[in-house]
Amino acid sequence: MKVIVGLGNPGLKYALTRHNIGFWVVDRLSEEWGIPVGKEKWKAQVGEGRVGTEKVVLLKPETYMNRSGQSVRPALDWLKCDLEDLLVIYDDLDLPPGKIRLRLKGSAGGHRGVQSIIDHLGTADFKRIKIGIGRPDSPVPVTDYVLSRFNEEEDEPIADAVQRAVDAAKAWIDRPFEEVMNEFNRNRESRIGPPGEDG
């Protein structure tokens, strides 16, 4: 079994905002795999199906971002899913738009949705796909920035990043995550902003 969680906020008000990019990836996976995400379970929108011989559960918490762990923990408990089979997909301020980064584990890095999951699971040892949304050029509060929409210059790199995140998640279904991580982390250049390490 694989459980893939995309983080975001529920409702049309937030649907196209930077903070909801994790939802976008799950929606795309839902389309490509033919696994509808619409059941109400574990305070989330859920889709369950099979990809090849693997059972896959797609999860979009509806607790609002900062309480994501209130959905993820009961889902894993009910499904009796091992942490090694959990993948969380979310936005990252420290990556430029157009860049993704896969990680086996790590801190929340200031992301409150991820921190909520860490708090409820009691560990930070779960796989992630982080999608860059960049930081504001002007002194805009982070809260306002993550709830804003992408600008026209960012649309193409973001669409590309979402598709690569989808491709990485699909690759993980039948390949070791470390192998997928090495492949998708290889491209360290961004289509927006200067190249550089992101931690």
TrEMBL record:
It catalyses: an N-acyl-L-alpha-aminoacyl-tRNA + H2O = an N-acyl-L-amino acid + a tRNA + H(+). Catalyzes the release of premature peptidyl moieties from peptidyl-tRNA molecules trapped in stalled 50S ribosomal subunits, and thus maintains levels of free tRNAs and 50S ribosomes. Hydrolyzes ribosome-free peptidyl-tRNAs (with 1 or more amino acids incorporated), which drop off the ribosome during protein synthesis, or as a result of ribosome stalling. The lineage of its organism: Bacteria, Bacillati, Bacillota, Bacilli, Bacillales. TRNA binds at residues 14, 64, 66. One of its GO terms (cellular component) is cytoplasm. This is Peptidyl-tRNA hydrolase. It comes from Melghirimyces profundicolus. PROSITE patterns: PEPT_TRNA_HYDROL_1 (PS01195). It comes from the Bacteria. The keyword tRNA-binding applies. It is found in: Cytoplasm. Monomer. The keyword Hydrolase applies. The record marks 9 as: Discriminates between blocked and unblocked aminoacyl-tRNA. CDD domains: PTH (cd00462). Its EC number is 3.1.1.29. Keywords: Cytoplasm, Hydrolase, RNA-binding, tRNA-binding.
